[in-house]
Write a structure and sequence with these properties.
Layout lengths: L31 H19 L11 H7 L9 H24 L2 H13 L3 H14 L4 H13 L3 H14 L4 H14 L2 H10 L3 H6 L9 E2 L4 E3 L3 E3 L1 E2 L4 E6 L10 E2 L4 E3 L2 E11 L8 E7 L8 E3 L3 E3 L6 E3 L5 E5 L10 E2 L9 E10 L9 E7 L7 H14 L16 E12 L2 E13 L2 E12 L5 E6 L5 E5 L12
Parallel strand pairs: 2-9, 11-16
Antiparallel strand pairs: 1-4, 3-7, 5-6, 5-8, 8-9, 10-12, 13-14, 13-15, 15-16, 17-18, 18-19, 19-20, 20-21
């Protein structure tokens, strides 16, 4: 019930409003049709009493009849019976009105009808009355919250919906209305809390995109005797952040993109999930102990230092293992560059890092080399590239210095790979690519070298023993073998 003065909610049985002190008078609410019936009855009775009847010939009046009767035979007159009938009618009307007013079903039906006609204020009063008479009926509560929402009273709608889901945890209408209220406020944290407390799996699945559950580790913590790859799973689209050193992760921590490889040692994995609405989950934690034997680290020659001529690095790894390396100083792993038998020292300053990985995925300690290769070359790499293209043009391989190829629509590109020594002479090594359309190129299978002191250019063909044999550039036909 609402206070007629301040509209505050008043509990059943209260005679005064606790907010403003207004006295509450409980008066049955008459419907228009009941009021009309009362008026019609009273009007009819009034007519019967006040309108005189015309006495027919030979008919005695009531007074004449009463006067002629002995005193013991006199009875209450017609007026008495009419008044008694009126009292009975009024009692029946009031009883009917009271039944209607105290019937939650009737109040709910009338509220539904008023809501359907768009009479929301009238519907609200009847919804409130029905809910007050039967406070655990979720249909009445759903109607009340729907009416509050229609009238823009979001806080009242939220309050009633929360009461509803406490009574019936699988009430989809109440959850849908609550989520609409919270989404309208942009309060996605509250939606996540609501869904976390929901026990109905169907409703949780329907609104799973709003949830932020702790990430699930597919491989649970424990002791393992092999290298482990740990997969982390989120309940919906979003981002997982994690650490492996036992520290609490934040949004500056590593982002999970691929399974996490855990090598020998002890690891404490901590991770949390952030969904697409920016809601953070609780943190998940797993402890792993990887008990495996480490392979021997690779042996690298030469040692770190400064060099004036190219060196091909000699790398030795244990049998059955592979060596991976990086040239940017980052930590190598199985996704880094695989050593395949030849690695020339980069020009300038470089930091190379190497690691051995066994067939079982166990990783050795990292080996690091810092090199400075100062060639004192007469030709720069760019000048050597121009010299190579001029030589190829003069031999008819290229149409011009732009790399256009005679008889073809595309052009050739020459990419520097490394600096090497062949038969005591030092060269820049270039690989040829054919570009048919801009941005799309493929290796032609041809390699060239340019002596960075003399500028001499040769085609280099690798032999079975991985050494190179050099040929003069004299066009596509009749190439003359030449070894420097």
């Amino acid at each position: 019930m609402k206070c007629p003065k301040c509209r505050a909610t008043i509990e059943d049985g209260k005679l005064y409003c606790e907010r403003c002190g207004q006295e509450i008078q409980i008066v049955p609410e008459f419907e228009p049709e009941i009021e009309n019936s009362i008026h019609a009855t009273l009007s009819k009775v009034a007519d019967e009493i006040t309108v005189p009847r015309v006495k027919q010939e030979g008919e005695k009046s009531v007074q004449d009849t009463a006067a002629s009767l002995p005193d013991k035979d006199k009875r209450p007159g017609r007026v008495f019976w009419i008044l008694a009938l009126v009292v009975l009618c009024l009692a029946a009307v009031f009883l009917y009105a009271g039944i209607q007013y105290y019937s939650p079903e009737t109040q709910y039906e009338k509220a539904q009808a008023a809501f359907g006609r768009g009479q929301y204020e009238k519907a609200l009063a009847k919804y409130e009355r029905a809910a007050a008479l039967s406070p655990t009926n979720v249909s009445y509560l759903n109607g009340l919250s729907r009416c509050y929402q229609q009238l823009g009273q979001e806080k009242e709608a939220e309050r009633v919906c929360l009461e509803t889901v406490l009574l019936e945890g699988s009430n989809e209408e109440a959850y849908e209305r609550l989520i609409a209220v919270y989404e309208g406020r942009g309060d996605y944290e509250r939606i996540n809390e609501l869904m976390q407390s929901c026990k109905d799996q169907a409703i949780r699945s329907r609104y799973s995109s709003y949830m932020a559950n702790p990430p699930d580790a597919a491989e649970k913590g424990g002791t393992y005797h092999e290298v482990m790859s740990i997969s982390l799973l989120g309940n919906t689209s979003g981002t997982i952040y994690y650490t492996l050193d036992g520290s609490d992760p934040d949004e500056d921590s590593a982002i999970y993109t691929n399974p996490i490889v855990l090598e020998a040692g002890n690891h404490i994995l901590k991770a949390f999930f952030v969904n697409s609405y920016g809601v953070k989950s609780q943190m998940t934690q797993e402890r792993y102990s990887i008990d495996v034997e480490l392979p021997r680290a690779p042996q690298i020659v030469p040692q770190s230092g400064t060099y004036a001529r190219p060196h091909c690095l000699e790398i030795e790894a244990p049998k059955g293992c592979e060596v991976y390396y990086t040239v940017d100083g980052s930590e190598p792993d199985s996704n880094s560059i695989l050593y395949e038998g030849e690695l020339w020292m980069p020009v300038g300053r470089s930091r190379l890092r190497f690691v051995t990985i066994s067939a079982g995925g166990v990783r050795s300690e990292t080996v690091e080399r810092d090199y400075t290769l100062d060639l004192h070359a007469l030709l720069s790499m760019e000048a050597a590239s121009n010299q190579l293209m001029l030589t190829l043009k003069n031999a008819g391989v290229l149409q011009n210095l732009l790399g256009d190829v005679p008889g073809k629509e595309g052009r050739n590109l020459y990419t520097y790979r490394y600096t090497l020594t062949i038969n005591g002479h030092n060269y820049y090594f270039y690989r040829e690519y054919y570009e048919q359309s801009e941005g799309i190129s493929n290796a032609t299978g041809k390699d060239y070298v340019v002596n960075y002191m003399s500028g001499e250019c040769y085609q280099a063909i690798r032999q079975e023993d991985r050494s190179f044999k050099l040929y003069r550039i004299e066009g596509e036909a009749g190439e003359e073998a030449f070894e420097s």
